[in-house]
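If you are new to this repository, start here. Below is one unmodified record pulled from the training split, so you can see the exact layout before writing a loader.
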Amino acid sequence: MASSTIKSTINNVVATFRRDGRPNPTRDTDGQLAWILARQYRAYKNNDPKEVPEKALPSCIFSYIAFNQTTEQTKAISQLIIGAFFFACRSCEYLKVPKAHDKRTKLLTLKNIAFFKDGKTLHQILQSELLHTANSVSITFETQKNERKFDTVTQWRTEHAVLCPVKQWAAIITRISSYNGSTDDTPVSAVWRHNTIDHITSSQVITTLRDAVKAYGEDDLRIYHHEVSTHSIRFGAAMAMYLGGVPVFAIMMIGRWSSDAFMKYIRKQIEQFTFDVSARMLTMQHFRHVPNQPSGSSSTTEYGGSASLMIGHESGGGITRTADPGSGKGTTTY
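And here is the target side for that same chain:
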């Protein structure tokens, strides 16, 4: 039995105790987790099978899906996948998912999407033909897993034919607005099917993603289709931003992570993860610790920790940075 299952079961017991106004049975008198329970948790975790997390998908898969959609349903799925990618959306934010009523996150509706051009808001209906020309698109997430409410995130247009947040969300709004009976409160998961409004489900998106991975080439991607789920879109967004040099704080804001928890999505197994790291490690090939004078002594010299370094070596009145002998470059004096 997995350790997470044990913890979840015990947490349910704890919740029952709290509802009855009774103390937490898993805590000692000092408020810490009971040592015997901590040991049991650790034992279960040690016996857990190897974790096989879903893998991040590269955006080339989303392009492949976009260029191979043929029906109203596949068109809707493609638009939602790409639109969700740029905002690192959770599946329950843009798809019909199982047990949706148990989730804190609210499904996005048309009124949560706003388009801006030259600093002005574009009206979704009166200016629908201009939505795809907007400079940026903003999404307001009313309620979320992290309990932040009315959190607005903005993304700007790109020049890519299909991988563009503005173009895809404009297509979603235009398509759904054309459905008979749609309103501002219609979920973005809406699709016209059998002469009525239906909804794109998470299982349909998973099937689409896995089929695309198989068609594109599992060996080329080094991803097997069973390693893919809707989480792979959110994971792929985090990876794409990281590889694109987006600052960590910006990744957290766009993905609406309240901590650095998103780092678990940044898989070091990605070949490009360490791109240019080896070259950067050779930037300063010589450094010298800065001498410190210990208190109470003026004659004995000590050397500071690694935080106090003198980079390069002295050359006349400055510090010289020595190039790699194999690089063919000279030296630079500061």
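Two things worth knowing about this chain: The radius of gyration is 27 Å. The domain at 59-267 is CATH 1.10.443.10 (hpI Integrase; Chain A).
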